[in-house]
Amino acid sequence: MRKYRAGASVACAAMLAVWAAGCSGNTDNNPQQGAGADSTGKQAEAKPQEPIEIVLYGGQSNWTEEMFDALYGNAIKKKFPHITPKLIPNSNTPLEQLITTGTPFDLMLVTPSGTRRMVMDYNLHTDLSQMIQANKFDLNRFDKTIIDTQRDIAKGGLYGLPAFTQFQVLFYNRTIFDKFGVAYPKSGMTYDELYETAVKLSRIEGGVKYYGLGTNILWQYRTSQLPVALVDPATNKSAFDDKVKVIFENWLRFFKIPGFEATDRMAKGSDLENMFFKEQTLAMYPHYTNVARRLPDTEVLNWDVVSMPHYKEAAGVAPSVDPYYMYVMSNSKHKQAAFEVAAFLTSTEVQVELAKEGFTPAINTPEVKAAFGLNNKNYKGKNINAFFPEKFAAAPPFSPYYAIADTSIQAVFAEVVAGKKDVNTALREAEATSNKRIEEQIATTGAK
């Protein structure tokens, strides 16, 4: 994420005004109940709650304390005067250090891909189902796939509440398209149409080499529009079937455009961000929505965005969403309060303020959509509709060993791009490597 902008202080002041007004009445998914009336009809005085500290560990976010206070911390203080919120940034403190030293924390921001290694491996997960029911927390406010993914992770329960989301969209550099007189990409394209566009943009001009499109193959499996399972959760085995091959070959062809000559780092996705952000030699770049928050200023990079193209079998379906969940820690001494904070952060008031900063919100309402990107000038004039698709693909079945499988594919993808292996051999070897590493991990840590 980019460093929090100076303009955020103005946004924060406005945010607090909204939250302050909201605190006097019921807000959506407010787990706190107001003081009731006594038998005379007089309003009973609320018993002051004991001051506590609720600590959030950054997890997979790279939030600074400044960002946390502006987006979450100040709002939490206003809503819950007895709570002092605190952030432990992951940039300063590795998770292992917190575990080793026994440092207490109550909440953590983590995506599905990080859930095993950051939550489950340390037995930090706890099922929130009873609290959700007791507090009448409405799960229907979220896209069904967001909740389904968490239920899959928790085997029917829920370990965390949605905080915000991300999913893939297609960013493109208008300047490169204008330079070569190529029509801009459009939402609703097929991947075949995208490939034809990429071919037109892959060329050398004025001694500068331009590339039509590059991507990180990992993302294309994690959020595929086609239903694909790299690991069978029932057997903990990888089986790279025909759908795995379809996705592999679909993206391989972009790296095999004549004259493309991808490096190993490009094939593994490492150099692409620099090529798109700074060097501006990459015309199109599929990436997650929240990366738009840290794109260079529009005056430097003339970018826009459309929805991801689709496979013929999945027309109108966006890639699966990759939510950031607010996990309540199993060892928290204040689980109920932590749950109340996490629930509050899903409210429309908070989600609107996140949307203003360019975070893809966990809820999709007219208020949230209208607010999207308002505090970031780089979103002005952009195709905001691309950030609000109508239908998401279902996420792959959750497996704690998924990262082993997709990194095995990433390694052989680079070898195929380099011409060192054919596709069939590469996938066969990747499957064998994945299964061996899964077996080794199970032997070391036990099956999850």
Automatic annotation (TrEMBL):
Region forming the signal peptide: 1-20
Family matches, as Pfam families: SBP_bac_1
Keyword annotations of the record: Cell membrane, Lipoprotein, Membrane, Palmitate, Signal
Name used for this protein in its record: Extracellular solute-binding protein
Domain of life where this protein originates: Bacteria
Record organism: Paenibacillus hemerocallicola
